[in-house]
Write a structure and sequence with these properties.
mainly alpha; 67% helix
Amino acid sequence: MGDQLESSGQQDDNQDQLSISNRSFHSKSPFVEDFKDLLKLMSTKTMLSLMSTQQKNLARALWEAENFGGKPLPGQLSQVYPIREYYEWVLLMEHQRQWETRQYYCQHAKNC
């Protein structure tokens, strides 16, 4: 029984070691406000040209889930959020992911 607990504990340690979410820095990009301002000024067409198909699909899925949850109700169509906000949000998440990835690799590299 002790062996089972030990091996289970070792597995947990291995999972923690491989988990991206356990990075100790999780710092916010110092450019996040500038990036938000840039997105506000950017046309939707330009925004879409920067996004991968997967990112576009994520934004659309989030937009549909938030606004309709399956079926739009006729009386609530005026309360539908613009999909552009979801495009901005996905691009902001990508910016943050890239920042965190760079910070992670800079912590482990000597030439960053």
